[in-house]
Amino acid sequence: MSATPQPRSEDRRVIRSRLAAIEAARTLFLRNGYAGTTMDEIAVLAGLAKRTLYNNYTDKGALFTQIVTDAIAFAERYAHGLAAEFDDMTAANLPATLHDLGRRLALAILRPEVIALRRLLIGEGRSFPEFAEEYFDAAPGRVLVALASGFEQLSEAGLLGAADARRAAEQFAYLVAGAPLDRAMLLGKMPAKAHVIASARDGVETFLACYRKKPRKN
Fold first, then answer.
1. Which has the least CB within 10 A, 75, 99, 156, 204?
2. Closest Cα partner for 124 from 75, 166, 83, 67?
3. Phi/psi at 94 (nearest 5 deg)?
């Protein structure tokens, strides 16, 4: 990947310029592809002088790298916070806690910037396979690892019966977000928030029906 320049300062104008450049690049990359987008077009859409754009990003590769890096950083923060959530789960609060987790996971995945990036990475997969691999390993991959670790912990506590925690994690993620995600990826249209939440709720119910350990009767 191209090295991403660091901000020259914390000046608000610099921050606004960088954000505008990233949004414009993401829009144009998705619309025209990486090869079909020029730095001049990015500058125009971002409302920036070419000199300002080049002062912040040396080339398209730097912008592409920043877009992927931002998405990875968000996923890493989310995955890091997942581990602690499983510590307080009990038989009594398991359904409510997993419903809350499923809803937040679905909403985190089904964000416009995430959908745009995934569509972009698929579109440029042949030219930049390393981008897609790095994103998968660091973003959805880490979330799945965190979920698998949590489900293994719950299984050891007798709350779930997940013999294969990784498979359970993959199933949980797809059940709560897979169907709306497929539509968003293929059609490029974001589903309504209420639909995402309802789908996540149904997905968690299906997951619990399969994996939740029923208490033993005396």
1. 156
2. 67
3. -55, -50
Structure tokens at 207: 């997951």
Ranges of each domain in the chain: 67-211
Q: Are 63 and 21 in contact (CB under 8 A)?
A: yes
CATH fold of 67-211: Tetracycline Repressor; domain 2 (1.10.357)
The per-residue pLDDT for range 139-163, each reduced to its tens digit, is: 889 999 999 999 999 999 999 999 9
Say if residues 80 and 177 touch (Cβ distance below 8 Å): no
Grouping H, G, I as helix, E, B as strand and the rest as coil, residue 43 is helix
Q: What is the pLDDT of residues 93-115, one digit of tens each?
A: 999 999 999 999 999 999 988 88
d(CA 119, CA 57): 23
For CA atoms 187, 170, 131, 40, the dihedral sign is: positive
- Rounded Cα–Cα distance for residues 1 and 11 (Å): 27
